[in-house]
Amino acid sequence: MSENLQKTLAEIARIEKQCQSLLVTATNLQELEKIKSDFLGRKGAVQALFALMGRVGADEKPHLGAALNRLKETLQAEIETRMASFQRQPMAIDSFDPSLPAKLPAMGSLHPILQVMDEVKQIFTSMGFRVEEGPEIESDYYNFEALNIPAYHPSRDMQDTFYLSGQHVLRTHTSPVQIRTMETQKPPVRMIAPGRCFRKDTPDATHSPTFHQCEGLCVDRGVSFADLKGVVQAFAQKIFADKSMRVRFRPSFFPFTEPSAEYDFSCIFCKGKGCRVCKNTGWLEISGAGMVDPAVFGFVDYDPEIFSGYAFGMGLERIAILKYRVNDIRIFFENDIRFLEQF
Amino acid sequence: MKVTLNWLKEFVDISHTPDELAHALTMAGLEVESVEKIERPFNAVVIGEVISCSVHPQADQLQVCRVAMGASEPVTVVCGAPNVAVGIKAPLALPGAVLAQNFRVASREIRGVASHGMLCSEAELGLTERSEGLMLLAEEDARIGADFNAWLGEADYVLDVNISPNRPDCLSVIGLAREIAAVSGKKLRRKEIVLATIAGTITDRIRVVIEDAQHCSRYSGRYLQNIHIQPSPYWMAYRLHHSGIRAINNVVDITNYVLLETGHPLHAFDYRQIAGQKIIVRTAAADEPFTTLDGKRHLLDAQTCLICDADKPVALAGIMGGLNSEVREDTQTVFLESACFEPIHIRRSSKKLAISTESSRRFERGVDPNGTVYAMDRAAELMCELAGAQVYGEAIDVHPVVVEPQIIHITTERINTLLGTQLTESEILALLPRLEIECTATEHDAFQLKIPTFRPDLSRPVDIIEEIARLHGFDKIPFSIRASIDQSQTINERIAFQDYLRRLLAGLGLRETLSLSLVSAMAAQPFLPQGAKVVELLNPLSTDWAVFRSSLLISLLQNTAYNRNRQSTIQRFFEIGNAAWCENDSHREKKQVVGILAGETHEPAWYDRGRAFDFYDIKGIVLQLLKACGLASVRLEPAADSYWSPESAALWYENTCLGAMGRMDESLLAAYKIKTRDVFAFQIDFDVLYAHHLQHRLFVPIPRFPSLPFDIALLMDATIPVGDIETAIRQEGGPSLAGVHLFDFYQGEQIPPGKKSVAFSLTFCSRERTLGDEDVTPMVDHILTHLKAHFGVELRPR
Ligand SMILES: [Zn+2]
């Protein structure tokens, strides 16, 4: 081993020791940065040692090269380890205050009624129903006639209607969408029609002249009332995420269904035991349903001897009121930010 | 329909408690809205008879009476009622009794005369809210000294039943009793009518001619003489009262009572007023005047069906009698009408004349055409009993249209298929006869049904299926889960796109609102397209809600004002919904996507004071939205509509206008009482956006080579839009120009007047290789040369 090589190796050992002792005494990241540049920088001590390669003969070069590389790697690793230990600690301890308020990005939100509508759409879509829509300004024909509600029939009194000129009305239900769908599509039909409806009701805690309904329809061969009960019960259990939800059907009357029913959900507040909300009945009235009246099929050219179907409705405000325990329907349409930001 | 429980009990045995009965009826489709006990808030009241009366020595208005009360000695009672007289029977409250409103009766001296009890009125007993004079008990069974409460009979309840329009038969006590019988499996008790008549020829007294057989299918009538008009007995007045009908006199009350009992409307004419001994049923002449018994004068149209005598109309058929022929105090002879009128006709006339009566409500739903005679004879029987009437001769029964019971054929299979049940033939045969439907098995599992004429709602097999389901119980129908799947079912893309936009806008920091569609005409006016009119309601609730909104901006401005009035300083809203207007007399509905920013970007905060919203905030939201819909290159042009301030722009995509955005017009904001000027909005036509949105995205490879940035600072004429320069840079930059970003904009000191300074950061990137300065410099030079030549833009030394 040449003397030059020995001297250089000793120098390497010294540099390594010097660096290590400096690392031990370093107290902050800035000092470490300086050590890093003093030793590993382009003009640092290690680079300077590489310049000494010329001192040794060609036979000793690989030996020295390996030693230098080892030094470089060792110091690099040690500096980084030390740096990491500092970096994990906050840098400017005295000025950092995590309790200062966050810089909140502007938050958007979806309206609670329409969130309920989204859920309803999702549930029925998962059961094979297609979502349909129709105009809010409807002709008398679609809103009444084709739903078996002829002019001068007492069943027109069941809904207070807003009339427009030219035999038009603001639709009182989304049932006209059923007719429009059946006009263009042959059975099987499975659809829901969520949307805005209008009735001439003076606003109070339970009435609004504008409200939202979702109507459902299924027509095929052999569709039965038992199918209707099944689908409504499945919906009840999904929308309230409660497998124990029960559904009750009571006979009723609608011109466009026969048999007609009102359906109730078991009270979500008392689980059907009876409470103030359900007036101790254990049931909450939801909406109407029934088997499509053959007269309606007559208007859309379906053969009632071959096809049967069920239809059901529901008020989205009603479901939202139960879901969110809102006590006044009007709050949905006030659009107070303090209300909207809760959902 | 309101009815007392004890009345129903006359026709059917009821073993249910009132609440159980209400539940059973509700579950059979007759929704009972309420069951209320009829209170008798008194005790210690007996039936007394006044045996002597004398004027109180100290007070003219008071009488000192001796009142007999059976076994014990008569008592002395001071009474101020106007109808107190010797021989009357009335409820007597004894000392210690408690009456309505907790009034306590005690022996006391009334102006020097000791009074040991109190003769009572109905109001004092709490039986009615108001009454005049003592309650007189004319009934023979009102035994002196008997307990008054016991005499009133067993406790009673009022049931309020909501009758759907298809069940006219249930607008009667008998009809409801029939349902109760059907539901509980009991038997309906019909009343036998026993009518004594005086021999005579009815046509000597009156003849009936139906000229309008289209509207009147049957007209029955009776002639009753020797009538004594007087108040009805208590039991009748009581039942009418609890059914919501005011007692008038025995004859009128009987027609109302029988209407309630049978569901068949009747009318009693004062025979004296019927000219020419003749009743003619005809249609009115156009504008024929007629005054109904409520004193209102009506002008009729040529379709109204009238009941007339030889000279004049005497009643609006099926709706209301005339003032000229009503029964009065001195009426002695009555012609009793029991007819059947056509439902649609009655409905039309009733709506047109705005008269709704117990009678018209029943006729418009359809009464039993074969029920006229029973109802008429029941009323005649009661008139004999309660008004001393004599029935003269036979009944009149003109019957041009005879309605036969309908026949329906049905099979067990059909019933079970529609209901999803497994009912047997014998189960079905056990149910239907309860509704008085006659069933004959024609072959195995097939029936022929004969439908009573009081059920006009049963005309098809499906109607029968409903009856079976109802009586069987909806509860007993199973819940089925069908697994069949329709493979052809598709997603509604338009609705899915709308939901996508809603989520995008919420993601862009806007809150979704849901507003009423109705606004005032004044609010709608400014937003109407050229030449359009508002969609006006013919019957609005109020002027504030008189027309359909012509733009969703109205809703968002209202929502903004609402929140600003409640100390909120920042509004960021959006709504998607329909606006509408009238064009060439037809209604046009348009779905709009609308957003608004009002007030400040954020509350003043420790790190930033915040600032007022500006045009570029709304532009940012709109461009992000459009970009997410795949509409990258949108052109801005001046917005024409007056609801935008000059700080606004219309949005164009290719040759279509998507909508507009910008600052809202100041006078419009003032109309909404919004005090800030900083209100920015956008309005986009949903269907235009839907038509142009990118439905299917294709992957664009990410460049493999690094990009090279190059900044340029330019000095340009203040009048040239920056957008023009940006577009020019993009056009001239060549295929390697990957990005143009304005990072500085300045106007003011150090800049020559009429000029502005802009700085762009250009990014170059090649798909083939790494670019160097030597590649980019000529491209930039080309851009700068072009900008100088076309816009006079100079490179600004940095
Ligand atoms: Zn409950």
Task: Give your account of this protein's structure.
The complex is a heterodimer of chains A (343) and B (798). Chain A has helices at residues 3-25, 29-40, 45-50, 61-87, 112-126, 140-143, 176-184, 225-239, 294-300, 316-324, 331-334, 337-340; strands at 130-131, 137-139, 163-164, 168-170, 189-198, 210-220, 247-254, 257-266, 283-292, 308-315. With 343 residues, chain A is of the alpha+beta class. Chain A has a 7-stranded mixed β-sheet with strand order 1-5-6-10-9-8-7, sandwiched between helices. A 3-stranded antiparallel β-sheet of chain A has the order 2-4-3. In chain A, a hairpin with a 2-residue loop joins strand 7 (247-254) and strand 8. The relative contact order of chain A is 0.10. Chain B contains 21 helices and 40 strands. In chain B, the strands form 11 sheets. A 7-stranded mixed β-sheet of chain B has the order 28-31-32-36-35-34-33. Chains A and B meet through helix 5, strand 1, strand 3, strand 5 and helix 8 of A and helix 8, helix 11, helix 13, helix 14 and strand 28 of B. The complex binds zinc ion. Zinc ion is lined by residues 267, 269-270, 274-275, 277-278, 282 of chain A. The site of zinc ion has 8 residues of chain A, from loops.
